[in-house]
Amino acid sequence: MSTRGYGEDKTNTDSAELIEIEGDLDTDLEIPDRGNILIISKDQSYLTHGIHKFPAKFFPELPRYLIQKYSEVGQSVLDPMCGSGTVVLEAILNNRVGIGIDIDSIARLITKVKTTPIDNETLKNAVDSLNQQIVLLSKSDEYTPSLPEFHYRDNWFRPFVLKELAIIKDSIKSIGQSHQISNWNDVSDFFHVVMSSIIRDVSNADPHCTRTVLRKKVTKKISPGDTLERFSQRLDRQSEEMKKFSQVVNELQVKNVILPTSTALETGLDAGSIDLAVTSPPYINAVDYPRTHQLEMYWLGLLGDGPLSKVKRKYIGTETVYKDEYRELKVSGLNTLDPVLKQIFKRDPRRAFITYKFFDDMKSQFQEMMRVLKPGSRYCVTIGNNLIREVRVRSHEILVEIAESSVGFELEKQFFSKLIRHFIRIPRKERMQGEWVLIFRKPS
User: What is the pLDDT of residue 51?
Assistant: First the structure.
């Protein structure tokens, strides 16, 4: 067990010199332990990186640096909680085998589309056919739209928006049935992700909130025809990016992408098979991923017939818990976590259990990474700290104690990556100033 003082306040990096990097980080750069960096990203929409919005996305430059620094060409890079696939895409762009796992169905779809090249001629012909079919349906007096059924649908969308989204969806289905398009599944997934990328914008939901909510004071200016126009613009833009991506992939030595249908806790991967793992876990009490993407998932048919709460309960960091689980205080035996749990429990027993469960799940996740990583390889984890019921939760310190004392990883280095903008409405005191990047090493 490490002798590190877990009770110390290690979040203050004001005394450390700020290293400001614009664009790529040079792999020769040795970021000091407990150093302070600020990345000014230039590549958030590079190639297919910008195909779909996703909460708490990596700047591509950070995983690119970690991949180049801690792995070699041809080796495997795993993101066990891959979100929208930034790490997986950067892995293949750097001639590594990209492996991405996520329990979230829309995350898996976005990752698959971002990392699957489509022949330019095939895509161009399919786009032309899709545009023609959209025009045909939009002008037809006999067309009856196929609308998905879900709670409060007519509150989330205006009638003309519903019809225009249905035109897009029905047009995609129609050309798949009536045209001979090679690799149709890949093309269809691409079209559906582009469609999904505009759904939040044309809904009545607050565009500045991570959760999908209606606000009386937020009234969007959406006119008939806007939905079809936005889709057309996004389709043109993303088709061009897909063309560029496919050209880049053609020049790569390694083109392997593996997207297992498994979870971060049970990856299904062979023991000792992974050369590097890089991830950003979900944050406690921060982003409710199923609720954030519920409108998109309803339209894409990704939620099934069950309630949203049933889906949410499977996530690490879930807020869907039962009363019997938090009647009594749960403790972990961790020096960094148990005092925090006791403070939160006094104010909110439910939040205390949510916090406990997150770190208990993360312990299992670290154990799985210890199993699948090769000896001497690294696990790079990016995590932000939280404020829960006015109690500061130093998540990075807790994860370090879990990884070292409970699982057996060695902490090689940690540094702080500052954030420069906040695009979403979060109370100022709850905003994260940045994220800790933890570099763990599996003993040889």
Answer: 96
Mean pLDDT of 302-322: 66
Together in a domain, 210 and 272: no
Percentage of the chain beyond pLDDT 90 is 72
Q: Which three-class secondary structure state does DSSP give residue 252? A: coil
107, 135: one domain = no
Residue 372 and residue 385 in one domain: yes
* Number of domains, the chain: 2
Q: Which of 283, 267, 269, 279 is nearest to 315 (CA)?
A: 283
Residue 228: HSE in the Cβ half-sphere, 13 Å Cα cutoff: 21
Ranking 238-242, 346-350, 424-428, 440-444 by mean pLDDT, the lowest is 424-428
Show the domain range for 232.
120-250
85 and 129 in a common domain: no
Per-residue pLDDT tens digits for 230-256: 999 999 999 999 999 999 999 999 989
Q: Looking at the domain assignment, is residue 26 inside a domain?
A: yes
CA distance 234 to 436: 34
Helix axes 120-139, 184-202, angle to 10 degrees: 50
Angle at 302 between CA 206 and CA 50, to 5 degrees: 55
End-to-end CA distance of the chain: give it in Å, rounded.
17
Residues 6+ apart with CB under 8 A from 260: 99, 101, 267, 268, 269
Task: Say whether pLDDT at 130 is over 60.
Answer: yes
List, for residues 64-112, the tens digit of each pLDDT value.
999 999 999 999 999 999 999 999 999 999 999 999 999 999 999 999 9
My answer on whether 113 and 130 are in the same domain is: no
Whichever domain contains 335, its CATH number is 3.40.50.150
Torsion, CA 278, CA 279, CA 280, CA 282, rounded to 10: -160
Q: d(Cα 50, Cα 54) in Å, to the nearest integer?
A: 9
Same domain flag for 278 and 412: yes
Give a yes or no: residue 139 inside a domain: yes
For the chain, the farthest-separated pair of C-alpha atoms sits apart, in whole angstroms, at 75
Asked if 7 and 25 count as a contact pair (C-beta separation under 8 A), the reply is no
Does any domain span residue 188?
yes
Close Cβ partners of 277 (under 8 Å, ≥ 6 residues apart): 77, 78, 79, 80, 369, 372, 373, 377, 378, 379, 380
For residue 296, tell me if it sits in a domain: no
